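Render this sequence as a predicted structure.
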Amino acid sequence: MTQTIEPSRAEKGCIQYKLHKSLEVKGIFIFYETWADENAISTHVNTEHYQTYRKNIETIFDTMDVYHLDNMES
């Protein structure tokens, strides 16, 4: 899972890419990502390293939820 971190951080449009794990619930992991725009996200999800990551986690994780958030402080 950590193999996607450095290549993702190196992508154009990546502002923040951090992996977190829950302190309360074993097996809960969250990537907190900030991208310059929707085009950067689209490019990211089509990269070879991201596609490899997705293939590798298919049998490990039961669910994968994605939330697009709006920064209320901006």
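Summary. The two ends are 31 Å apart (CA to CA). The longest strand covers residues 14-21.
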